[in-house]
Amino acid sequence: MTPVLLPIATQARTREALGGLLRPHRGLVAGTVAVLVTAAVAMLLVPPLIGRIVDAVIARGPAGIVDGLALGIVGALVARAVLAALGSALVARLGELVLAGLRERVVRRALDVPVADVERAGSGDLLQRVSGDIAVISEGVRRAVPMVVISVLDIGLTLVGLAVLDWRLALAGLVPLPVWVLITRWYVRTSGPLYAAERAAEGTRTQTLLVGVGGAATVRAFRRRSAQLARIDEHSAAAVTAAMRASTAQQRFGAVMNGAEMLGVLAILVTGFWLVRADAVSVGAATAAALYFLRLFDPIGITLFLLDEAQSAGAALARLVGVADMPAPPAPPDPRTPRDASVRLSGVRHAYEGGAEVLHGVDLDIAPGERLAVVGASGAGKTTLGAVLAGVRTPTAGTVEIGGVPLAQIAELRRHVALVTQEVHVFAGTVADNLRLARPDASDAELAAALRTVGAPLALTEVVGDGGDELSATRAQQLALARLVLADPAVAVLDEATAEAGSAGARALERAAAAALAGRTAVVIAHRLTQAAAADRIVVLDKGRIVEAGPHDELVRAGGRYAALWAAWERPRSPATERA
């Protein structure tokens, strides 16, 4: 099934969003425009100065005049170079500031996107937007946008310069204008959707690759390698086809633009010849007109070469604005504060979109400060129950309450309940940076105390994540548990938080988890039954239903499903089994 991609903003909405991002930087925008216009005007002086040199040479004027005009040309060229470089730097700075604002909005909204929406679209689409699309826009801001802006100004002011020389020469220079306008309108109208389709196809391809690589073991186990490779080939071919369509449109545009340039040169030369012959203009003026038109080739060529990058950046921008414009999670209609750390699940049911029901009418009461372990076979619904309890997923039926208040009505839910899973992300930066994700205002002393609580032998200044030390599964999970200590929620849910560690590491993590959960209401999705044995109460899930509940000793004596699980756990295990 092809994933339903996240929203993409319309062109009108993208322009509106861009205007909103530019508004806080009005002064920089005005200064940038002034510098770029001055740079274009400086270059505008060169053709008429050359024309005057031609007239002076024909009239056999004093050498001093020619020298002075030559110095004027040099001055104009130097001014142009300096101002163009400054203008490019200003445009790039403005673009990076705008991009930073957009990036913050997108990431902020991406973190709030409901899990169900991400699953419908596939994580590849969101990943492509917050990485690939940002990279496309960033490259456009640094390279394409400054050069396109300067080139467009050069084109416009050059046409003005032609009009100042002689209106008939200006009319001759406008001969290719209808062709330029028509082909540019066609290209902009055609290439926009083509580049949008290209970006969307790349997002689908990324998602397919992620699924194929992430599920490689399953694919091999079920002998679906050929089918998965065919799926990857199909989406890769679609991405290549989309890129080729955009490239073909660009080549057609270039061919017509080159033909229009040739037509314009011919019109200028013929008109200049007749005007000089009629003594209506000087040879120098006709020369300046030809130079004006010839110097249009470079900016037009640059615009042609980089407009596809600008269009691609525009398509990427529309995709980012689409994410930034996604509705924020609704505020609680009647925000309330839980009275205590008790938890109640009443008739909770949950089904993933398009799938069968996973939880079937779960009823559960957890007392304040109680540590509850949830055990069961794979697929029993343990992780889903933890996600529903933590508010990560909304149940399709039933209610979840903390301290007598439904989750939907709790103000700042994350302050009251936190979820720690076995998949921990370590962000690039120092250990202190990673810890302050949980509490930005925490002091170094508080960070160090949190590390000591969970027994993590990490230094606050140690650089971890990409470009730094790659933490082991045990150290990464200790870092996550230290974040939990700093966040200090009343209710904590641990979803198989020791599953990724080996035997020795798991024992260290069990001690760390016990220390982090001290004084809190805790729900532990237990991968290792030693965690369940240490809990106040155990709930056994089977096919989305609670089939047993009670303390460890009581359940073992009962001889039911938990007793069977415990007996299997207690059998002598090989090191490989211990790690499984």
TrEMBL record:
This is ABC transporter ATP-binding protein. Residues 30-312 form the ABC transmembrane type-1 domain. The keyword Iron-sulfur does not apply. It comes from the Bacteria. GO terms for molecular function: ATP binding. Residues 343-568 form the ABC transporter domain. It is a multi-pass membrane protein. It is found in: Cell membrane. The chain crosses the membrane at residues 28-50, 144-163, 169-188, 253-274.
